Amino acid sequence: MEWMKLYVEKIDSSLSFIEKFPKGRLCVCKVRDEGGFLRVLKIAPTNERSKFYRECVQKEKQALNVADGIYGVPRLIRDYSRKFFCHGGALLKEYFEGEEFSEKFKNNARIRREIEHIVHDLHLIKIANLDLKPRNIIVSSDGLSAKFIDLDCCDIHNEKSDSNYSFDKGKEFDKYNLDKLFS
Question: Residue 156 sits in which domain range?
Fold first, then answer.
């Protein structure tokens, strides 16, 4: 992972590489910032075939900006789209300690209410199609709170350009996936 450490340093020399998360096609890693806080650095590949992944990172940046202040959604810490070698494909966001949502949380009413509340709040600001699946939700080690960690596939609906039909479909899809998580 020496190449990863060098790449993180090239993006932001104030970050210290800790580890790469194993899942996903985007390069996602845990880093420590200059204040000693753990963060998540998400980097899209920079080759031409990776346009989809760059768009995912751009979409997540937009979603994190719109959802700023919503409990259960990470804050965007830094946008690296102006770095010439990132091509708009890197962001730094909050890191949440915990474990991936799993079978053991399916009967946890508190976690279900928390996730439902986050979904509701995102729907209120017209963010839907949240890609609700276990690997995109972190549950605290005490089992008392849940956080969404990945919004790169969501849809952000704009009243001027989007129909209510597509937003309603995104909400239905979220409801379906929410029920699937807890069944």
Answer: 99-181
Rounded Cα gap, residues 19 and 5, in angstroms: 9
DSSP designation for 73? S
User: Where is the domain boundary, 76, 94, 112?
Assistant: 94
Q: In angstroms, what CA-CA distances link 137 with 70, 105, 120, 175?
A: 15, 11, 15, 15
For residue 110, pLDDT over 60 is answered with yes
- Could you tell me the CATH number of the domain that includes residue 24? 3.30.200.20
Question: Helical H runs in the chain?
Answer: 2-11, 51-66, 109-124, 164-181
Q: What is the pTM of this model?
A: 0.90
CB proximity list for 80: less than 8 A, separation 6 or greater: 11, 12, 86, 90, 91, 92
